[in-house]
Amino acid sequence: MKLSEKKLKKKKEEIILSAVKIVNEKGYQGATMEEIAAELLMTKGSLYYYFKNKEDLIFQCHAMVLEQATLELESIFNKKISNEQKLKRMIASHIQYAIEKKETFNMIFKPEKTFQMEQLEPILQKRNEYSNWFDQVIEEGVKTGEFKIKELKMARMILLGAVNWIQQWHKPNGDKTTEEIQEIYSEYLLKVMT
Amino acid sequence: MKLSEKKLKKKKEEIILSAVKIVNEKGYQGATMEEIAAELLMTKGSLYYYFKNKEDLIFQCHAMVLEQATLELESIFNKKISNEQKLKRMIASHIQYAIEKKETFNMIFKPEKTFQMEQLEPILQKRNEYSNWFDQVIEEGVKTGEFKIKELKMARMILLGAVNWIQQWHKPNGDKTTEEIQEIYSEYLLKVMT
Amino acid sequence: MKLSEKKLKKKKEEIILSAVKIVNEKGYQGATMEEIAAELLMTKGSLYYYFKNKEDLIFQCHAMVLEQATLELESIFNKKISNEQKLKRMIASHIQYAIEKKETFNMIFKPEKTFQMEQLEPILQKRNEYSNWFDQVIEEGVKTGEFKIKELKMARMILLGAVNWIQQWHKPNGDKTTEEIQEIYSEYLLKVMT
Amino acid sequence: MKLSEKKLKKKKEEIILSAVKIVNEKGYQGATMEEIAAELLMTKGSLYYYFKNKEDLIFQCHAMVLEQATLELESIFNKKISNEQKLKRMIASHIQYAIEKKETFNMIFKPEKTFQMEQLEPILQKRNEYSNWFDQVIEEGVKTGEFKIKELKMARMILLGAVNWIQQWHKPNGDKTTEEIQEIYSEYLLKVMT
DNA sequence: GATGAATGAGGCTTCATTCAT
DNA sequence: TATGAATGAAGCCTCATTCAT
């Protein structure tokens, strides 16, 4: 039945969203099934109808969030604009996640050491996929002469690290708007590339 | 009694070191008093002679580590070298922590959301002290014309974020030595400043 | 409605058979409604259409199994053969249950301590009915002089105990066939009676 | 410290005894850590100071009980009496367990299907050790001509089965004393051997 | 100072049971 | 009739904390 399947999927997603929220507030260990369920006005027992156990649930959180973020990067990559522009936009996209979708963002870049090997592997792979879009743009940019760096990977690491850090200090009502931050960061970070 | 006080302090430090290690491996929630004690061939009961409770212990871990790291920055700042050189050395010092003293490092820059407000405040203050040495060097550099940036705080954030990120990807037997990483990072990051 | 009643009864029996199987594998506590239902490609919710609750279902398992086994003994008792022959055949029948219908057999002679008094009573009564056929044959045999024992009940207990125990050690591919076991057991056990 | 070790051992034994009792009343699955602890006026948490988990506790129950029972058989075997006498006494010993130490007895002869392979193996071995003393007496008896049976194992199985069954029907205030039961059973069962 | 032992709260998980559809 | 979904009680287990010795 298409309908019931859809419903199931939707519910799963709701739960995942709730879990993402709690996990980002409290971390993997700190998040409790109780709280995740309470957020949705469910009882914790119900969660086990949808997910095998806590690890499974948290794993699917990672998977889902990474999926979305990666799609966004991909679409930027496929636009017909200069590599410099692409990189700027990617940085902006990433910053927006860090600031405005703090919850989902943390999930991507705070690799908890809580997964068994079998589950950890696919996550790391998906994370690589995500980073890969940055690498590709930088590489292209180097080819076209827009960027002038030798240590590609290092440059990418600096870039991601700098941007990820934002959510450590950013506060909703700070003295800079999201746009300003995006502007300043991309300006300064592009300096690294040139 | 000077002697017994010294002994007490030494013991406390031993415990803190053990705790730092475990916390960085497992996180705040994951670290157990049992394990922290076992590391020192003690029983967990004994820990409560030295620390009021788990939170207190972990708090003092942060305090101690930050103290040390800050002293190191201070000594660099007081050397008679150019601001560019100072910044390079600070970055190098920070990178070394991130790579070779991973355990203590994490403690500085992974602010767990586990502290009550009373305890959190002094930690944040100490962290500010640490960051402050970076700010001061950058500010001096701008004054002398070595650096040319308007957004001081932002630049410092980019710098710290980039460097902090290292320990997310660095592996002991990677293809770059600590020195190479220090070299590349300070080169690329100084580009931001100029 | 004859037809729908028949259907209902058939379905109930199917469920009972499934339950018998699972209970004998896992015990009362270990058997789950989920698994019992899964065996029949149903969902556990459906079971409650046919049975009031788990206890009721398991109870009816016992009832059904005992019914069948008792009928078998009765038919042996009504044959025109010597009491010695009858007893031999009853032992053989019981052994066959123990070996080849292990699942149903366990149900008869592993009295779980899970029933409330109201439910337990009728089960014990039915079990008595079953045992009674043994008693009657032995009694008749004593009257005719075929058997020579004073403690009838004790003798029957020894007999049943010995035979019930078979399924504790019997393995499908052991070095004795069912027939051999039936032969040896009835020979040895008849020694007790004489 | 000899003393503290002794205390520990004693406590463990107390817990085991409590567990044996509960398990025999409710079975492995039915017995709860809560109840086992309550019996000793402890809290369930404390049990985990002495045993790794439920399985470990129950396993040690089996081990302890089997140990004791086996020692008893061994001492009978080493007496200077006829094999017929030995067998009679062994049966009596076993019956006494079945009747008066019901709780420990069940543990020996109700092989729960709850142990992992690693734990199950040593238990089965110990059970074999126990049965072995019966085998040896029977074998010796056959050699000396006291017993006249071909199927040794079968005879032993009949014997054990019959005796184990006692506790299924025996009630504290029945019309036979333990001594009478011992008398009748050994008389009837020795018939099988001759 | 140190520890063995106990505790109790809280977390994960299972499962019989219910009920709207 | 059947089921998908939800519930809540109960069980196992962990662990910070306490305290008598």
What kind of assembly state do the chains in view correspond to? Answer: homotetramer
Unreliable spans of chain A: none
According to DSSP, the number of beta strands of chain A is 0
Largest sheet of chain A: none
> What fraction of residues of chain A sit in β-strands?
under 5%
List key phrases describing it.
10 helices; 194 residues; mainly alpha; DNA-binding; homotetramer
Description:
With 194 residues, chain A is an all-alpha fold. Chain A contains ten helices and no strands. In chain A, α2 (33-39) packs across α3 (44-50) and α5 crosses α6 (102-109). The model of chain A has no long low-confidence stretch (mean pLDDT 90). The A-B interface holds A 25-30, 109, 111-113, 149, 151, 154-155, 157-166, 168-169, 181, 184-185, 188-189, 191-192, 194 and B 25-30, 109, 111-114, 149, 151, 154-155, 157-166, 168-169, 181, 184-185, 188-189, 191-192, 194. Chain A binds a DNA duplex (21 and 21 nucleotides) through residues 4, 7-8, 11, 32-34, 42-46, 48-50, 53-54.
